[in-house]
Structure formats: structure tokens, C-alpha cells
Design a protein that fits this description.
The protein has helices at 11-21, 38-46, 92-96, 128-133, 155-162, 165-175, 188-211, 216-219, 222-230, 254-265, and strands spanning 2-4, 30-34, 53-54, 64-66, 82-84, 86-90, 112-118, 136-142, 234-239, 242-247. By secondary structure, it is of the alpha+beta class. Strands 1-2-8-7-6-3 form a six-stranded mixed beta sheet. A two-stranded antiparallel ribbon has the order 4-5. Strand 1 (2-4), helix 1 and strand 2 (30-34) form a beta-alpha-beta unit. The chain starts with a strand and ends in a 6-residue tail after the last helix. The chain binds zinc ion. Zinc ion (ZN) binds at residues 70-71, 73, 76, 78, 81.
Length: 271
């Protein structure tokens, strides 16, 4: 799955992804941000009220918040006291089959357009359209087939899958702590090598968190991992045809590091 943020969709990018997705024996799903222009605004205005479906959060739960005029009991069950925070709708057929003909002419036939609407946070920057309408919109396109069965094909899932992009933005932000923040040289080649090394570091940290760590450490950012794990006074020693990890027992994360080491050691060896 390839995700891209903002209004990332250009003809070149989508054409490239479409071509990659068409390779026999491969499956590639993309989810790419799409600009909110005049034709999209017209389509959004034409979505029937009942066609907006409730969006879910990463745990699959409905995102709700208290209405402005809610009662004093914050745990109440009154319908009027809660607002569903976000909704999703598909705009594809409104754009393709509207009164003004196919407005997605030139884009791949498999490309579908989705919109999410949310109640804006107080103080959010809104476009005129959003200010009048009362919702804030984000749009994206995907090639996930309309025939997809089960929960993978539901609008709520398609929306949640697009929002994993937020994790990518986290990785870019924390990548700045692992060398992406500043380049050391005026020389392009040197910086290219630096970038490669920084990417290797980011990838190793990601795999370390995924395969070997749990709890707080599995969610920790590079700065924390550097202090707790990478800078720990430990040594890898060889002897008797075995490798042993020697680590200072008083280090507060010694157990977590030992467990991580055992998990890595237990991974099947690459052929
Ligand atoms: Zn209430």
C-alpha cells in the first residue's frame, strides 16, 4: 500500500502507480491526497445526507464528541448530546456520471475519489466553502476496487487506511533526529551517502520496534531509544560457538533489551 499526503495526486504519480498495480502477480493499493477544487465542491454538495457514513478511529470505534449544547452528565446516552466527529462518502460516480459528463476524464478508470468531513476544531483555518458549509473536508483517491468484499471494502476502512499516512509524517519528523534534519556537506555525493545511512538507521529502528520491543519502547521515538537501548553499556561476546549479550544488570531497561535480543536471536535466519 502506498500512501501520499496533502493534495499529492498528479497525473504522473497516479499513472505510475496504476502501471505498477497492473503488473501480473502484484497487488498494489494506493491512497493519495486529492485537491478540493470546484468540481469536487459541486460533487460534495450533491452527496445525499444519508450517503455520508460514520468514520471510525484506529481501534475501529466511532469517533464521538460532546455537542455544544450537551447536558451536564458527560457519560449520558442522549443522542442530541453527542456528535459523530467524521463522515466518509465516495464521490466517484458524482464526478464521473454527473450532468456535466465525466469530470475525471484522463484519470485511470479504476481510480475512486473519497471525501471525509469533520467538524473543524475551534480556530482551524477554513476555506470559504468550508466556513459556509460547516464541515472541513479532506479528499483522496484510491484504486481499491469497488468490488472489494467485507470490511476491506467499506468506506470507513478505506478512510482509516488513508489516515495511516499520519504515521509516515511521524517517521519523517522523528527522522530528523536520526540525521535527516541536516546534511553535513556542500557535496551532493557526500549528502547522498549521509541520506542512505540515515534511512538505514530509520529502517533498523522501525524493525527493532516491530520485531523486538513492546510496551513503551515499541512506541518510543528515536531520542528515547537512543538513551534507553542504543546507549546501554552492553557487549556482544563470542565464545563456545555462541554469541552472548553482556549487559549491566542495574540498567533500568536491561530486561527489555535482553528480551529484545532473545526475540531477534529466535528469528529464522535468512537463507
Ligand atoms: Zn445528555
Amino acid at each position: 500500500m502506498i500512501t501520499c499526503d496533502g493534495a499529492g495526486a498528479s497525473h504522473d504519480l497516479i499513472a505510475r502507480l496504476d502501471k505498477l498495480a497492473a503488473r501480473p502477480g502484484h497487488q498494489l493499493i494506493y491512497s493519495v491526497g486529492w485537491e478540493l477544487g470546484a468540481r469536487e465542491r459541486a460533487a460534495i454538495s450533491a452527496v445525499p445526507a444519508g450517503a455520508w457514513q460514520i468514520a471510525v478511529d484506529a481501534r475501529g470505534e466511532i469517533r464521538e464528541r460532546r455537542a455544544d449544547q450537551a447536558c451536564a452528565d458527560r457519560g449520558c446516552g442522549h443522542r442530541r448530546c453527542w456528535i459523530e466527529e467524521a463522515h466518509v462518502a465516495e464521490l466517484t460516480s458524482l464526478l464521473r456520471e454527473g450532468p456535466r459528463g465525466d469530470q475525471l476524464d484522463g484519470w485511470p478508470a479504476k481510480m475512486r475519489v473519497f471525501a471525509r468531513r469533520e467538524r473543524p476544531h475551534p480556530g482551524a483555518q477554513l476555506t470559504l466553502f468550508e466556513a459556509e458549509d460547516g464541515w472541513r473536508y479532506s479528499l483522496w483517491v484510491t484504486n481499491r476496487p469497488a468490488t472489494t468484499r467485507g470490511w476491506l471494502g467499506q468506506n470507513a476502512y478505506i478512510d482509516a487506511a488513508h489516515r495511516v499516512q499520519a504515521r509516515v509524517e511521524d517517521a519523517i519528523r522523528t527522522g530528523k533526529d536520526t540525521g535527516l534534519g541536516h546534511f553535513p556537506s556542500f557535496d551532493f555525493q557526500v549528502n547522498a551517502a549521509w541520506l542512505t545511512a540515515a534511512m538505514i538507521a530509520a529502517i533498523l529502528l522501525a524493525w527493532l520496534k516491530l520485531l523486538a520491543l513492546d510496551g513503551d519502547l515499541a512506541r518510543a521515538e528515536p531520542k528515547t531509544l537512543r538513551y534507553r537501548v542504543l546507549h546501554a553499556a552492553a557487549r556482544l561476546v563470542r565464545g563456545g560457538r555462541r554469541r552472548r549479550l553482556k549487559i549491566q544488570a542495574s540498567w533500568p531497561w536491561a530486561d527489555a533489551i535482553t528480551a529484545a535480543w532473545q526475540r531477534i536471536d529466535a528469528l529464522p535466519q535468512a537463507p
